[in-house]
């Protein structure tokens, strides 16, 4: 009797037959039944009546891994080839393929899938099952599809060693590699979770990853967010008010004035997982990285694929999205200006609007507020204006910028990017006032409550205080490193330094996060202009705003004194001590400064070094690089280049973030290139630059925006909170009412 239920991994065991066996055991051998019931309950608590469905190319190890997973869960294991197809057809799969040919084989396979039914099992699909849509829809209804993502070169090597000479789809002139690449589109369509499988990873390790991934998929409560200012005792008392990714996307700023961060930190990739992405495209890398940071309960994989494809598919002028270019010596430029508005802000703000539209409830209107020191404004206006018409009717955006604190072209661009759901407001003050004002509006519960009750409108944030803004920036820092490996500049594991022009600390924080996730970044070099509060802080541990006034410079995007995202980093190195962070920022607000303890400063200086650049040195760097290479740096990249020259030790490559296209700062560039006569018209300035046949060429998207007629007016507002609130109400009334 007991031998009847002995585990046999490749047998098709139905739910009914299991129930009959358990009934017999319960009556005849209660102790044995209790042991089996306990084991069944363990697996049942993980998958219940759902199936774990393993999907991937031939040679991915689905059968072997399925057996191991089944043994770990003590549940039935079904191999589609051996247990379903060959049983149904009464012949081997290879014989069937030879008998009916490729197209008919897929149809016959699909018919078998449509008749197939199982529950509480581990199912290993064939490599071609996902190519039959109706069959996969049927199987997926009662299962969690796990994609074993193995690099194509690894699969090719395995198939060769297995002496496989034919797979479905093969015909004269079509190679194994062509077929494997073609099938990826089908795998990406169906999976719920993905497992990155490097070349020499053991099947047992992959099986453990499968179990971990399924647990994660079924338990979103493991991925909650906390405020940088919340205390540990407060968190334990607020377990009923968890914040998830969707919540923090919508809310932007935490109710206590802090910034949201993941409670358990970011996921860490193994070296082999990163290496599996070396041959991947930028979009593929973005998909893998973002889906590990965003729980599928918030955004499922198929929707994330759609969002990333929409964001990066056609909106960028370079097919590589974020190419890495050798500049000179050991210096490389990460070009982040190929998006529609010509700055690094496009990487987040082509994605975030679609994420936001997916996450918000359908029953409410949302007004997104953003403050900009230059580049964010046009990027957020462009991103939200690309939403579907139905989403634009319920989502509007208002951009506040310092009226006299951005470049003329940046200003023209923000005005030109205004659309039916996107407006710009010039404020007679600096960026720090704009950013502080938005924070105060968000924490004014009386005012936000009034907008909700009176107008049915909720406020949201699109600045880098919003967690969703940071995630796409992690991608390009990781991708830059992988590109250097792909170009054989370095082997994987060798360190690099990164140098980033820094104002609000978001971009450099994303690089630090990439380092935490396993990218071998040695030092992050913070490059300041003459507003060098961050440089002083990193060198001394004293963040001191007393007596400082903002200095307008040629690099306005980093003309910032209060760096919002620094708070997230301090929370990280302070071991999530929200009380300490609150104390530091209260002191900054009330006394104009704070000082880090010695141990925290030492931690900070393990990650960061800093320097600053004068206006004269900035222009000199632009002229020098153009004279020697023909390449034109924008003013922010020039700041980073100057600082990198001073601080790098030349023992490893250094990646300089080129955060904007020089076209946005034409007057300063023309001055740096020592061109005497400068026409004040922005379009004329760009045409003049274009006549020099520069590298890279003048940005087409920027030129087209500046050529547009209409939308030339914008609202200008005094630096007064009541006036800003009045602007907000007027926009709500005009758009939503």
From TrEMBL:
Pfam families: SKI, Thr_synth_N. Keywords: Amino-acid biosynthesis, Pyridoxal phosphate. GO terms for molecular function: pyridoxal phosphate binding. GO terms for cellular component: cytoplasm. InterPro entries: P-loop_NTPase, Ser/Thr_deHydtase_PyrdxlP-BS, Shikimate/glucono_kinase, Shikimate_kinase/TSH1, Thr_synth_N, Thr_synth_N_sf, Thr_synthase-like, TrpB-like_PALP_sf. NCBIfam families: thrC. Coiled coil: none annotated. The lineage of its organism: Eukaryota, Metazoa, Chordata, Craniata, Vertebrata. Residues 239-312 form the Threonine synthase N-terminal domain. Belongs to the threonine synthase family. CDD domains: SK, Thr-synth_2. It comes from Apaloderma vittatum. Pathway: Amino-acid biosynthesis. This is Threonine synthase-like 1. The modification N6-(pyridoxal phosphate)lysine is found at residue 345. PROSITE patterns: DEHYDRATASE_SER_THR.
